[in-house]
């Protein structure tokens, strides 16, 4: 199909012409098939599944992380409780310290108590630190803090109490001492001394601020001058000793002592009351302490219980979370599994369909290949089947053409030859079309002269043009390169086709071939070949179609002008195969111009192939040739040609016989048909080569495809001559092969020149000359013998005729036949054979007289002709 | 392969002098090459008349080429028995212009080794036939 239509203004007369330009081969539009549906679906499905998996994984991760955290938290030791345990321990220690102090009055326990209070204080601070993460425990901590404070206050009170008690005991001791030392000078006792032993009233602990350290508070209370508003213990020693004292001597001493004793008694009484009070206070404090302990314990238990409950709740939450997670994961897994199953099903179905389609495609491909191969085989077979009989037609036509024919016979033979050529042309066209379509056409790349090709075309087409009133001219521009590199055969084919068409469609007028250099760049040249005619032209509407297969423009064209319609189609494909373009300008009634542009590489004379034209005479004589062909008429054609060249041949009708003969006898060359039943030419060649026979083998065959040529070569065949072949082609092939062969049969003598083989055309001594094998003496003797025999035979025939001795006459005629045959004295031979036939059968005796006269005439003609031969005259000389 | 210690004998009976000489010449040329190849000696004798032929026929003649129509009403068929009487193992090749199946069949049935039609290829066929017989004898 043309890729686009272009209008070109014609310079001739301003009429609009249509032109068609072809730049490429076929435009095939392939339907676009959406392929995304399946892939998109599958990908979407897989994305969804992946998303589900990711979400599930993430959720699971989150849940399990929280679960692990919960478990971790649950298994982690409760620092709060631990701290609380420590607090309780410290409280216990403090209590123990107080008790120990109260027993031993050792300061170490006192110190221990206060150290315990410091530690407890810190632990409570740390508890508050934990509170930041657990606000639910805040009330507990506050309560604990208060209870701890209370306890320490109680213990502190106990300590103070014990201190007081200690002071009392110290006072008791003092008093005892005083009493002991009643007589002692107590005057020296001063208030100061007493005061120094004073005990401080222990203030009741004021409700303290939580934030103030317990120790600090207790120290404050201990050394505070501020007296608490609490029930005051009884009069203090100060008060007791606040009584002014007189310092007297003598009798006053006893009074003083009595006063002192009285005072001491009073003090003792008050102290006993105080002591009782202290004990009661201590008891109260211990009871209070016990209560505080209980409350602390309860608080601790509550906190523990709450911790356990929290833990339990956390565990439940975790369990619930796990369960939920499990359900979620299960749900997601089920969904994902379902989706995956769906995806797998879809993929499986797709793969199954895909495999089915692939198998179907494979089968279709195999079928298509088989069809293509079958088509090729069919064409090859058809080509072979057509070419084989055509070989006989063309070959024997050629042979007949070389014999003497009447004018009518020559005209008829000419028609036969032209028809055979035409039929062969059509077969070649069909094969070319097939090769071009399948891309199997191989183009040559050899040097050639464009001028020679054009001249050949002109020479070939001149007769056709001459048959009509059409002049044919060619003009090659001077700037066209002398030598280019390309395929001259195909160029010739294109030009022949175009010129042939122009002549065909030009009833009267002119056809011109013009070659110009369109463009050149470096070593490349773009040549333009234009074929112009003044013919019938082509209608614009038909211009597009003429390059299609089997199209000829008008339907009537085929009827009127004939042709298959393949020529231009093949021409177009050939041009395109050479990367060229073709343009057509045409106007109905005025003519057509076809322009072909073909790029070539510019060559030199060195690129031209060597000419290997060999004359007929250079073929060695007495060649022993084995002719192998299953078709008798093919063998007949070959032997007819070989006889002319003086070759000695043996025939074989099949490959088996060919192998037997070739391995058993000596031949100089084998002409082998490729296609034969049973063992074909290729197999026969293989077997011959295997047997060590190295003589040249020429494939003579109508099967000339590329595959065939490869097969011939690989089997060991040396050359190929395609059927139908011209005599010259066959002889050329044989000559070329034998030129390469080392031990050629000697041909010391030149062949007899054609003009010396027959003086009057009544005979031909070439055969005899060949059989003489260069022996001139023998040759002349044979001529002499013939003359003698011929004269004798003529006499015997005449005498026998006279005597009506028909058998005798037949015998005589019979005797001269072989010599006549070997001298190609056909007329004489025909007459002799007729006489023999009549003499033997005794039928047609009436013709004998005429025949006898004819024999006489012919015999004399042959004899006189022989006597005029230079070779014969040498003898005479 | 074996050897022939004696000459390979060929006898030709052809009443046409022209053809007689031609056939003889052809066989001489061809067998000369075989003789060189196989280190043999060929003895070729030609006769125009049946009587001469029969008298001079060697008992160890290997091949005899006999024209069918020999004149005077004599034909090769009639000679076959006499040839075999003289030479049992002789391979008789009948050559004739007549493309007559009956003649060829009868000749062959009377003991002829081969029948060659006297066309342009008769001469080379005769040569090949001799080579075949030589090969057969040497391989025996």
Number of helices, counting only DSSP H or I runs of 4 residues or more of chain B? 5
Radius of gyration of chain A: 71 Å
**Termini separation of chain B (Å)?**
8 Å
How large is the share of residues in beta strands of chain A? 5-15%
What does this structure look like?
The complex is a heterodimer of chains A (877) and B (140). Helix content of chain A is 62%, strand content 11%. Chain A has 877 residues and is an alpha/beta fold. In chain A, the strands form 2 sheets. In chain A, strands 1, 2, 3, 4, 5, 6, 7, 8 and 9 form a 9-stranded mixed beta sheet that branches. Chain A has a 5-stranded parallel beta sheet with strand order 11-10-12-13-14, with helices on both faces. In chain A, a hairpin with a 6-residue loop joins strand 1 and strand 2 (16-22). In chain A, helix 1 (36-75) packs antiparallel against helix 8, helix 2 (79-104) packs antiparallel against helix 3 and helix 16 runs parallel beside helix 17. The relative contact order of chain A is 0.05. Chain B is an alpha/beta fold. Helices cover 48% and strands 23% of the residues of chain B. Chain B has helices at 17-38, 50-56, 76-86, 101-109, 122-139; strands spanning 8-13, 42-47, 63-67, 69-71, 74-75, 91-96, 114-117. In chain B, the strands form 2 sheets. In chain B, strands 2-1-3-6-7 form a 5-stranded parallel beta sheet, with helices on both faces. In chain B, helix 1 (17-38) links the parallel strand 1 and strand 2 (42-47). Chain B is globular. Chain B starts with 7 loop residues before the first strand and ends with a helix.
Characteristic key phrases:
heterodimer; A: 877 residues; alpha/beta; 9-stranded mixed β-sheet; 25 helices; 14 strands; rod-shaped; disordered N terminus; B: alpha/beta; two-stranded antiparallel sheet; 5 helices; globular
């Amino acid at each position: 199909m043309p890729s686009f239509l272009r209008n070109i203004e014609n310079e001739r007369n301003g009429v609009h012409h249509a032109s068609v330009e072809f730049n490429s081969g076929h435009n095939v539009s392939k339907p676009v098939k959406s392929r995304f549906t399946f892939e998109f679906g599958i990908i979407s499905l897989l994305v969804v599944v992946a998303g589900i998996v990711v979400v599930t994984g993430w959720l699971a991760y989150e849940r399990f992380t929280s679960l692990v955290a919960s478990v971790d938290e649950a298994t982690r030791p409760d620092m709060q409780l631990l701290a609380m345990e420590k607090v309780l321990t410290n409280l216990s220690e403090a209590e123990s310290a107080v008790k120990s102090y109260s027993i031993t009055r050792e300061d170490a326990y006192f110190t221990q108590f206060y150290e315990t209070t410091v530690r407890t204080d810190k632990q409570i601070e740390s508890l508050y630190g934990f509170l930041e993460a657990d606000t639910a425990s805040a009330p507990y901590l506050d309560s604990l803090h208060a209870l701890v404070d209370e306890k320490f206050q109680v213990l502190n009170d106990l300590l103070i109490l014990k201190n007081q008690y200690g002071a009392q005991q110290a006072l008791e001791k003092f008093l005892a001492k005083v009493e002991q030392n009643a007589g002692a000078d107590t005057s020296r006792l001063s208030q100061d001394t007493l005061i120094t032993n004073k005990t401080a009233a222990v203030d009741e602990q004021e409700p303290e601020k939580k934030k103030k350290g317990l120790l600090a508070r207790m120290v404050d209370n201990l050394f505070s001058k501020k007296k608490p508003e609490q029930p005051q213990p009884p009069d203090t020693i100060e008060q007791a000793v606040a009584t002014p004292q007189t310092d007297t001597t003598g009798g006053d001493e006893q009074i003083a002592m009595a006063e002192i004793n009285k005072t001491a008694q009073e003090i003792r009484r008050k102290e006993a009351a105080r002591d009782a009070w202290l004990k009661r206070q201590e008891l109260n404090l211990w009871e209070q302490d016990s209560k505080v302990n209980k409350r602390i314990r309860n608080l601790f238990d509550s906190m523990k219980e709450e911790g356990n409950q929290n833990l339990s709740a956390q565990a439940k939450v975790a369990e619930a979370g796990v369960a939920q997670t499990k359900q979620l994961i299960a749900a997601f897994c089920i969904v994902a599994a379902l989706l995956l199953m769906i995806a797998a099903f879809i993929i499986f179905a797709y793969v199954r369909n895909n495999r089915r389609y692939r198998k179907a495609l494979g089968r279709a491909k195999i079928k298509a290949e088989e069809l293509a191969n079958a088509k090729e085989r069919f064409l090859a077979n058809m080509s072979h089947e057509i070419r084989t009989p055509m070989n006989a037609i063309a070959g024997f036509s050629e042979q007949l053409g070389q014999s003497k024919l009447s004018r009518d016979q020559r005209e008829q033979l000419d028609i036969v030859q032209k028809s055979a050529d035409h039929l062969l042309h059509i077969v070649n066209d069909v094969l070319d079309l097939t090769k071009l379509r399948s891309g199997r056409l191989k183009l040559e790349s050899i040097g050639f002269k464009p001028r020679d090709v054009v001249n050949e075309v002109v020479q070939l087409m001149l007769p056709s043009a001459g048959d009509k009133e059409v002049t044919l001219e060619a003009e090659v521009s001077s700037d066209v390169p002398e030598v280019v590199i390309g395929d001259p055969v195909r160029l010739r084919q294109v030009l022949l086709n175009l010129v042939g068409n122009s002549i065909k469609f030009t009833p009267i007028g002119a056809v011109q071939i013009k070659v110009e250099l369109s463009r050149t760049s470096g070593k490349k040249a773009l040549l333009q070949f234009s074929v112009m005619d003044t013919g019938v032209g082509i209608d614009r509407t038909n211009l597009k179609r003429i390059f299609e297969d089997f199209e000829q423009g008008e339907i009537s064209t085929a009827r009127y002008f004939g042709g298959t319609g393949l020529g231009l189609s093949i021409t177009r494909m050939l041009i395109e195969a050479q990367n060229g373009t073709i343009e057509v300008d045409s106007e109905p009634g005025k003519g057509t111009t076809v322009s072909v542009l073909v790029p070539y590489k510019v060559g030199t004379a060195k690129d031209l192939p060597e000419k290997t034209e060999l004359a007929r005479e250079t073929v060695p004589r007495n060649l022993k040739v084995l002719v192998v062909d299953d078709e008798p008429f093919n063998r007949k054609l070959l032997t007819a040609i070989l006889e002319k060249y003086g070759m000695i041949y043996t025939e074989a009708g099949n490959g088996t016989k060919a192998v037997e003969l070739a391995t058993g006898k000596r031949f100089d060359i084998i002409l082998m048909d490729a296609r034969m039943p049973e063992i074909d030419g290729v197999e026969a060649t293989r077997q011959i080569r295997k047997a060590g026979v190295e003589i040249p083998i020429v494939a003579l065959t109508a099967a000339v495809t590329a595959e065939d040529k490869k097969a011939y070569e690989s089997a060991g065949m040396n050359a190929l001559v395609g059927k139908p072949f011209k005599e010259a082609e066959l002889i050329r092939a044989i000559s070329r092969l034998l030129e390469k062969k080392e031990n050629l049969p000697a041909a010391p003598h030149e062949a007899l020149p054609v003009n010396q083989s027959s003086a009057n055309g009544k005979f031909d001594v070439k055969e005899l000359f060949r059989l003489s094998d260069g022996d001139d003496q023998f040759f002349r003797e044979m001529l002499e013998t013939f003359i003698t025999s011929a004269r004798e035979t003529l006499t015997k025939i005449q005498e026998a005729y006279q005597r009506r001795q028909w058998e005798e006459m037949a015998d005589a005629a019979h005797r001269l036949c072989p010599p006549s045959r070997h001298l190609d004295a056909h007329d004489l031979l025909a007459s002799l054979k007729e006489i023999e036939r009549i003499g033997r059968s005794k039928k047609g005796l009436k013709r004998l007289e005429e025949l006898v006269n004819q024999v006489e005439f012919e015999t004399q003609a042959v004899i006189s002709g022989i006597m005029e031969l230079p070779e014969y005259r040498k003898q005479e000389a | 392969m074996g050897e022939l210690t004696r000459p390979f004998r060929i006898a030709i009976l052809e009443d046409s002098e022209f053809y007689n000489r031609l056939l003889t010449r052809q066989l001489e040329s061809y067998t000369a090459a075989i003789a060189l190849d196989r280190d043999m000696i060929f003895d070729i004798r030609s006769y125009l008349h049946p009587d001469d032929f029969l008298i001079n026929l060697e008992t160890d003649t290997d091949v005899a080429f006999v024209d069918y129509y020999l004149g005077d009403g004599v034909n090769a068929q009639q000679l076959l028995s006499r040839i075999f009487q003289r030479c049992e193992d002789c391979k008789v090749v009948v050559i004739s212009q007549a493309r007559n199946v009956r003649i060829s069949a009868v000749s062959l049935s009377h003991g002829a080794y081969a029948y060659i039609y006297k066309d342009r290829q008769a001469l080379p066929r005769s040569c090949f036939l001799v080579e075949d017989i030589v090969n057969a004898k040497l391989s025996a």
